[in-house]
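Subject: design request, 199 residues
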């Protein structure tokens, strides 16, 4: 395929024919990252109703920088191949602009591409929840709030050593309920903390 022929296909994709499939396949294998060659190959396969179209379309969509262009070109080929019954054949001598063809097509026929249109228009994405800005003051306040579910003998001992006797008693009582086999041991520690609290 020469440069003029390739440019002609780019400007007038309706000129693609059965022979262009082989030429474009060769070009894509030679230049695998050429978006234009891949789009033209997909269009040619679509126009010829080739069974490889779906697989090629998937690959082309990955390489395409702008999928809207690909979709618009396929819509154009589809409209030229299957004009809506209410309009009659499309005149080649006075072609409509591309946007008019797409609008006409969407108004007159249900297209398998409408779903893709809606997807592109909505531009869905993964949204992240907004996290509040870190505040050292808030973090320090939360750190001194007692966690009711945290009970350990070590924590009770720390409270006792720091002379937070009421907190130590509270934890020893919870530990006594949690470990009834050690209740006598915890009762002695509770009594010791109560004596320290009185003095």
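Subject: RE: design request

Done. Sequence follows.
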């Amino acid at each position: 395929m020469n440069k003029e022929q390739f440019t002609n296909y780019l400007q007038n994709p309706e000129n693609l024919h059965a022979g262009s499939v082989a030429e474009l396949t060769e070009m894509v294998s030679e230049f695998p990252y050429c978006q234009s060659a891949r789009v033209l190959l997909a269009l040619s396969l679509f126009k010829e109703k080739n069974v490889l179209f779906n697989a090629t379309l998937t690959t082309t969509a990955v390489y395409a920088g702008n999928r809207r262009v690909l979709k618009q070109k396929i819509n154009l080929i589809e409209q030229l191949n299957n004009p809506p019954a209410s309009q009659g054949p499309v005149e080649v001598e006075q072609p409509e602009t591309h946007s008019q063809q797409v609008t006409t097509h969407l108004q007159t026929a249900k297209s398998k591409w409408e779903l893709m249109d809606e997807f592109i228009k909505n531009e869905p994405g993964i949204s992240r929840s907004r996290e509040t800005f870190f505040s050292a003051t808030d973090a320090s306040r939360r750190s001194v709030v007692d966690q009711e579910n945290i009970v350990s003998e070590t924590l009770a001992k720390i409270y006792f050593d720091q002379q937070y006797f009421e907190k130590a008693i509270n934890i020893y009582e919870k530990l006594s309920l949690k470990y009834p086999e050690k209740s006598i041991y915890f009762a002695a520690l509770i009594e010791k903390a109560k004596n320290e609290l009185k003095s």
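The mean pLDDT is 78.
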